[in-house]
Structures are given as structure tokens and as C-alpha cells.
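FORM 7B - TANDEM STRUCTURE REPORT

SECTION 1: FIRST PROTEIN
SEQUENCE AND C-ALPHA CELLS:
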Amino acid sequence: MNIPPQAPLHLLHRVSEGTLATHSRDPAGFPYPTALPFALTARHSPMLLISSLAEHTRNLQADSRAGFLVAHANNAGVLEGQRLTLLGTFEPALKTDHEALSRRYLRYHPDAARYLELGDFAFWIMSPQRMRFIGGFGAMGWLDGSEIDPLEPLNGDEESALCAFSDTYSGRPADIRILGIDRYGCDFVESGTRNRFTFDKPKLGVEDLKAALIDCFERHA
């Protein structure tokens, strides 16, 4: 079945935690699943902040192949919600990208600042090769990892400027905090609850993105 590529993209942006399955070193040959918070890079790839002492980190150092599962069920059972399984590899982020990744990750997980201070935590980024999306009964299919977004993403400065615009916009409801912005939607917290506002179409220019943010605020006023 044909799955619109933006369906898994929006699912990834609605979820703050996932299940990482690595290849166990000892006992060898077994899958090793663990639950972890994550955020997305500008290209919608899962990034993890993990300790060098963690078992899953050591597993990735020995074999970078992994699976990553995210699910969004609202108040229904997990089988009634959307699920996405990504298959690919995880690699440590470049040190030159650390500052930008930290800035983005901490918008989504501000409590993670204490882990960054410890010194042995580092960002690992997934390169998805295949994805299995299940959107409900009869709505499922495989996609290539490259299908999720063909557009050039916003750079860090553009997104930071848009976040600053949203923080100072007089019409923003006081209980809404923007977490991240991309060409297809914006992630936000409203009264402590994570949510996503999906744009009517991809926004290619900064002014169009500002207008879409204002639309989001007006709809949640």
C-alpha cells in the first residue's frame, strides 16, 4: 500500500520516546531493546543522547545496525494507534555539530542539560534505510529512508530565528511553547502536553513559516 511519506514524518514529531533495539554483545545474537527519549535532527532523523557506559551504546559501537520503534496511541490501545519501525544505522555525531544538536535537543528535553554536564554523554544519529509504517487497520507499508523528506531543511539559524519570533509574538497563547519548526509543521507543548500543528502544505519561505506559526497560535487561542 502506498504510504504518504509525511505520515511517518508527522508521527516521529509527535513522540518524545522510542524503543531502540541493538545487537547484544553478551549474550551474543539476541536483540537488546531499551526505551529512550529522542529528538529529531533538521532532517527528521532520530538522535539519542546516550552514555558511553550504557549497554546499548557499547552494542552500537560493536554493530551500528539497529531498529527504532515509535508509537502514538492517544488514549487508545497501542494496536489502534500509529506505529513506525525504522531500520538503519546509528553513528556518533560530529563534534562540530554538537552545539547545534545540543540547542535543538534541549528545546525538546530541557532536563537533559544535567546529562550534558557529565561529560560522558554524546549524541548518536540514526541513518534510516527502511521504514515500516502502520497507520491503522489496512493502512501499512514500507518506505525507503530517503523518502521521508525530499526538501532542503531549515538551517539552525533559520529555525532559531523562527523560535525567537514565536517567543516574542504578542498573539501567542501563554500556555504554548514552540519546540521545533520544519517545513511541514511545528512541534509545541501546550499546558504540559506535547503536540504538533501540521501545515496545510510545505512552507518554503521564512515569511510563509511565520504566517503558519501565527495560524497555529490563532487556532489554539
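SECTION 2: SECOND PROTEIN
SEQUENCE AND C-ALPHA CELLS:
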Amino acid sequence: MQGKIVKGIAGFYYVYAVESGIYACKAKGIFRKQKIKPLVGDDVEFEITHEKDREGNIIRILPRKNELIRPAAANVSQALIMFAAHHPEPNFMLLDRFLISMEQKQIPCRIAFNKADAAGEEEMVQIREIYRGCGFPISFLSVHTGCGMEEIRAYLAGQTTILAGPSGVGKSSLTNAVQSGVHMETGQISKKLARGKNTTRHAQLIYVGPETYLFDTPGFSYFSAFELEKEELRHYYREFAPYEGTCRFHGCVHLNEPDCRVKEALDAGAISHVRYENYRLIYRELKEEEIRRWK
């Protein structure tokens, strides 16, 4: 049979087969010998060992489209990066880190600002202004009122989407809202195994509808230094792109160099000061990391 791993806990992998539901599976020893670890999101072939207890063995992992390390996940087709427009105030530095991380993996993104019903028009205008040149689509919504949710449902349809963002922004509420009564909780898993308790630290893949899955990723809320050379960082700020190659110095990193077109655009208001300051701070972080590596 074929299925998709929706959760992995304590050596068990819970595999969802569309026509049959969830099976608690162990991975064959060959994966350990080959140093291959099954990941949530993997498409697999498995054999049933006990139909009554809904247990089985994973015998093959199908080729992955991509994989993430933190959280450990495979076959992600897109990301929905969620923040609150109001309470808690959006952390734009963290948002930029999410965008850079997803772009490194070539995973398309949409930014969603929840709690738009509680935010003032001035707050939303400010957010739009900061990210107007970022190159990613932005949605304002309210899970509470349902405003903007149709756009989100359309974005999720037919995709495997990783939902990322800090605590308190409404990720769980959005997850519940888009399921339309279809649940894939560990309560469906064999009671004999009793492995479904205290699982909030584990990534989980939730079936939303036909060919539509949503990664619930507790703890996916912070990124430290990237595996990125500091000179590459400027390419992850898309609003800089129109000015690349027009500065006085080739390879200008848009910080202290004279006749820098990006800094001129910044002074003219064409580039957000918030985004540029985030760029400057992350660049400094990468530079410090580089110095530590060479010590």
C-alpha cells in the first residue's frame, strides 16, 4: 500500500492512506543501515502486519521533492507564513528570517497577517508599505470573523503547505478553520500503542482535502544564523534587485560603499527602512559568524 507519513513519534511513523486511514508503522532496518530517516511528509510504500491493530512496516520511501531540517519535513510545496497584524505586534525581523529560509529551499511563500479585524487601517497600511517590494503575496485576514479566509483556502487547495509563525498569531485557529470537519488526529491511532499523547513538540501533517495537506509545526518560530555567505544575503531582499549592477562598485553589499544605488533608493523612500535595517543586522550576524568560523 501507499500512504503519507503524517507524524513520527518514538520510532513509530503514522502513515495515512487515503482510502484506509492511519496505520502505525515501524521502518525497516535497511533504512537505518542506509542512514535514511523517514520524515513527516514522506510518501511511502508500506505493508500491513496487523490489520486489526492497524500496524505495519514501511518498506520504501518514495523520492522526495525537498526536505527541511528544522522542522524535519519532506515534500513541502509551499509555505504560509503567519503573523498577527495586531496583538502581538508583528516581528518583522523574524518574518524576514522565515522568508529567507523558505527562499533558500526554493519554497514559494505567502505572508498572512491575521487579526486584521483588531488592527487599525493605519497599521495595515504600514505593513503593506514595509513589504510592498518584498516580492511575496500578502493577505490580511481574520480567522475569527472569516474575512479573507476564502483566499487562504484557495491558496492551500491541492498543495502541501507548511504553516510557520510565532505563538499567539492564530495558527491553530486557522488549522481548525480550514479542515472542514476532516480530522487526522492521533486519537485514530491504535490504542494499544498509546503513542499519541504529549505530541505538541512534533510536526504533524493534517489532511485538509483532496491532495491538500497542512503541516502543523510547533516550535517552528525562530531562526538563528543561516547557512549563507554574507555577500549572498542581498539577493534575498528582492527590492534591491532593480539596483543590482548599478552601484559604483561591483559586488556592492549596500552598506558602507559610496555611490550605492540601494542606499539612494532607501533615502528616496523606494525601499523600506524596516527591511533595510533587518538586512543590515542579519548581514552583521553573518559576518560575526564568519569571523567565529575562522578563529
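SECTION 3: OBSERVATIONS ON SECOND PROTEIN
Residues 182-200 have pLDDT under 50 and may be disordered.
The two ends are 52 Å apart (CA to CA).

SECTION 4: SIGNATURE
Preparer initials: ____
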